[in-house]
C-alpha cells in the first residue's frame, strides 16, 4: 500500500476521508462536509490544542472539508491546497459560502460603516474571500454588514499576472513559521500567496512546490524562476536578485542571489536547485 503524505491526506487510525478507502486503514470513513472560515486568519494546528504547533493558516472565506467535530474542534482539510489539520469550531460557518470578491492587496480593513474613521475595524488579508452586496462610491458593502475600500478588492475570478510583483509587496513583512499573511509568513507561504493572487495553483510547503511546479534543468536566472534549497524556497527577480522570506533577516527581503547561495551553502551545506515557471 502506497504511503500517503499525512499533510495532504486526511487519515487517522480511527477515522479517514472516504476518498482514501483502499489506500489507508481506518476504523471509519466519512465524506466530510464543506464549511467556510469566517475569521481573518486561523492557525491550522497539528492537534486540537491552542498551544500546538501549526504549519499554515486558513484565511477568511477559505473552504474546509470537515471530517470530525469534537470538543470544540474541527478536523478537516483545506480545499485550496489540501492541507490537513485542526481548527476551532467557532471559526467555521457550518456551510459553504459562495464568495463574489477577493482581497487583492496585502491587507485591508473591514469597517462597521462606510467611513474610514469608524471603529472597530477588522484587518483582513490578500486572497481572503468576501461576499459583496453592492458598491457605492469608494466603499463596498458586505453581506452581513461591514464595508471595505472598493479599490482593495476585485471580483473573485480576476487575478494579477506577475507573481514576482505580488511577492515584492511583502518586503519587510516579518518571518513567521506557518504564517500566511502580511502579519507574518514563511518562505513557502510567500510563494503560495503570490501564486494564488495570480490565479495559479500552488501547494503549501517548499518540498511540495518543488515537486509540482516548474521545469528543472537550467542554469541562467530568469524572472519568476523558483529556487530551492533543502527546506527553503525563493523567487528570482532578475539575473542577479531574488526575494524570499527567511530566518536570516527574520523578514521578507530582496538579496543578491550569489550572497544567499554562499550563505546557505556554507551554513547548511545545501546548493541551489532551479525550476523555470514559464
Specify the structural class. Answer: mainly beta
Instruction: Report the sheet-strand fraction.
Output: 35-45%
Spell the H/E element sequence.
EEEEEEEEEEEEEEEEHEEHHEEEEEHE
The count of helical stretches stands at 4
- CA-based gyration radius: 20 Å
Proper CATH architecture of the largest domain: Alpha-Beta Complex
- Average pLDDT number: 96
N- to C-terminal distance: 36 Å
CATH superfamily of the largest domain: endopeptidase domain like (from Nostoc punctiforme)
Unreliable segments (pLDDT under 50, ≥5 consecutive)? none
* Helix residue percentage: 10-25%
User: Domains counted in the coordinates: how many?
Assistant: 3
Major sheet attributes: 6 strands, antiparallel
Features:
globular, 5-stranded antiparallel β-sheet, mainly beta, endopeptidase fold (from Nostoc punctiforme), 24 strands, 36% strand, 278 residues, SH3 type barrels, 6-stranded antiparallel β-sheet, 4 helices
Overview of the molecule:
The chain has 278 residues and is mainly β. It has three domains: 15-91, SH3 Domains (SH3 type barrels, Roll); 101-155, SH3 type barrels (Roll); 163-276, endopeptidase domain like (from Nostoc punctiforme) (endopeptidase fold (from Nostoc punctiforme)), CATH 3.90.1720. The protein is built from four helices and 24 strands. The chain has helices at residues 163-168, 187-197, 206-212, 257-268; strands at 15-17, 28-30, 33-36, 41-45, 54-59, 63-70, 73-78, 84-88, 101-103, 107-111, 122-125, 129-130, 132-136, 139-142, 147-149, 153-155, 180-181, 184-185, 215-216, 226-229, 232-236, 241-246, 251-256, 273-276. A hairpin with a 4-residue loop joins strand 22 (241-246) and strand 23. The chain starts with 14 loop residues before the first strand and ends with a strand.
Amino acid at each position: 500500500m502506497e504511503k500517503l503524505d499525512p499533510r495532504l491526506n486526511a487519515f487517522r487510525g480511527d477515522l479517514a476521508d472516504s476518498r482514501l478507502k483502499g489506500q489507508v486503514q481506518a476504523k471509519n470513513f466519512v465524506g466530510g462536509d464543506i464549511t467556510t472560515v469566517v475569521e481573518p486568519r486561523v492557525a491550522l494546528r497539528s492537534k486540537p490544542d491552542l498551544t500546538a504547533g501549526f504549519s499554515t493558516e486558513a484565511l477568511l472565506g477559505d473552504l474546509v472539508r470537515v471530517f470530525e467535530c469534537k470538543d470544540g474542534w474541527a478536523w478537516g482539510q483545506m480545499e485550496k491546497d489540501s492541507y490537513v489539520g485542526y481548527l476551532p469550531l467557532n471559526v467555521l460557518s457550518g456551510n459553504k459560502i459562495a464568495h463574489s470578491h477577493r482581497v487583492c492587496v496585502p491587507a485591508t480593513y473591514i469597517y462597521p460603516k462606510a467611513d474610514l474613521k469608524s471603529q472597530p475595524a477588522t484587518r483582513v488579508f490578500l486572497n481572503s474571500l468576501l461576499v459583496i452586496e453592492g458598491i457605492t462610491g469608494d466603499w463596498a458593502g458586505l453581506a452581513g454588514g461591514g464595508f471595505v475600500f472598493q479599490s482593495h478588492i476585485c471580483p473573485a475570478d480576476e487575478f494579477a499576472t506577475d507573481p514576482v510583483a505580488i511577492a515584492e509587496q511583502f518586503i519587510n513583512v516579518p518571518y513567521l513559521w506557518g504564517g500566511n499573511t502580511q502579519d507574518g509568513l514563511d518562505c513557502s507561504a510567500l510563494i503560495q500567496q503570490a501564486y494564488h493572487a495570480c490565479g495559479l495553483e500552488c501547494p503549501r510547503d517548499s518540498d511540495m512546490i518543488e515537486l509540482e511546479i516548474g521545469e528543472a534543468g537550467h542554469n541562467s536566472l530568469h524572472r519568476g524562476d523558483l529556487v530551492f534549497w533543502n527546506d527553503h524556497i525563493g523567487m528570482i527577480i532578475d539575473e542577479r536578485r531574488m526575494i524570499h522570506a527567511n530566518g536570516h533577516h527574520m523578514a521578507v527581503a530582496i538579496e543578491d542571489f550569489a550572497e544567499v547561495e554562499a550563505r546557505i551553502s556554507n551554513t547548511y551545506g545545501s546548493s541551489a536547485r532551479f525550476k523555470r515557471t514559464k
